[in-house]
Amino acid sequence: MTTVSLVEDDSSFVLLLQRTLSKNKRIKIASTHTTAEEALTELPHHKPDVVLMDIKLPGMNGIECLKRLLQIRPPLLVQVLMLTEYEDNKLVFEALKAGASGYLLKDRISVRDLAIAIKDVMTGGAVMSPNIARKVIRYIHEPSGSVGSLSDREMQVLLKLADGLMYKEIAGELSIALDTVRKHVGAIYSKLHVRSRAEATRQLQHHAR
Q1: What domain count does the chain have?
Q2: pLDDT the model gives residue 81
Q3: 44 and 126: one domain?
Q4: Is the pLDDT of residue 80 over 70?
Q5: 84 to 43, 52, 122, 170: CA distances (angstroms)
Q6: Lowest-confidence region among 9-13, 75-79, 116-120, 144-148
Q7: 126 and 186 share one domain
Q8: Quick check: helix, strand or coil at residue 173?
Q9: Looking at residue 159, which CATH number applies to its domain?
Q10: Is the pLDDT of residue 166 over 90?
Q11: Domain extent for 97
Q12: Which residues are within 8 A (CB) of 18 and not within 5 positions of it... i.e. 6 or more apart?
C-alpha cells in the first residue's frame, strides 16, 4: 500500500484527486494540506510515501516547501511530484533542482497516468508530462547562451524586441509591468551573452534557421 499526501489549495482539484486515487486499491490518502506551512508541520507525523505538491500555493510556494521538506531531520523517505498548470521553464527546472521526483501538468494527467506516476516514483523513476520532458531534453541539448535557454515569457519578450516594439509597447501587449519587461530583457541579454537588441535578434534569427 502506497500512502499519498496532497498539498493543494484548490478544493475542487483536491476532491478530484481524492476520487481519482481512491479507485486504486494500492493507494491510500494519508492527509491533505492547503498550505506549505501546514504541510511542513504535519507531514512528518503522517510520513507519506509520496507527496503531490502544487507549485502556486498561498504564502510559501511549493518549490520552497519541497526544499524545506527534504531538509527535515530525521529525513522523510518521501517522493514529491509537482502538480501544476504552469509549463514555465524556470519553474520546471527550479522544481527538479530542488529535488522533485516529477513534474506533471494538472490538465494533462489522466486517472491511469497518475497512478502509474506514483508507482514509478516509488520504484526510483522520474516522471514528467510529455511536453515537460521535451523541454528538459531541449534544454539539455541546447548550448549555454542559446535562445533555447530562455523561459517562455523571455521568449515572448524577445520576439517583441525583434519586431521592433518599445518596452512600453511590450508591456502593454503582454499585460505586464514596464519594470517586469526591463527585468526580462536583462535576463535575456545575460543568458544570450549579448549587450543589445540587435545582437539578441540575430541570435533569434539564427535559432529559427
Answers
A1: 2
A2: 93
A3: yes
A4: yes
A5: 20, 10, 20, 27
A6: 144-148
A7: no
A8: helix
A9: 1.10.10.10
A10: yes
A11: 2-137
A12: 6, 29, 32
Q: pTM for this structure?
A: 0.66
Per the CB < 8 A criterion, the answer to whether 70 and 39 are in contact is no
Q: What does the mean pLDDT of the chain come to?
A: 86
CB burial of 80-102 (b: ≥16 within 10 Å; e: otherwise) equals: bbbbbebbebebbbbbbebebbb
Measured between alpha carbons, how far is residue 64 from residues 53, 54, 149 in Å? 11, 11, 23
The answer to whether the bond into 48 is cis (omega within 30° of 0) is no
Q: Which of 29, 31, 56, 11 has the alpha carbon at shortest distance from 114? A: 29
- Using CA atoms, how far residue 124 sits from 47, 50, 119, in Å, is 18, 12, 9
Q: What is the CATH number of the domain that holds 72?
A: 3.40.50.2300
Which amino acid would we find at residue 39? Answer: A
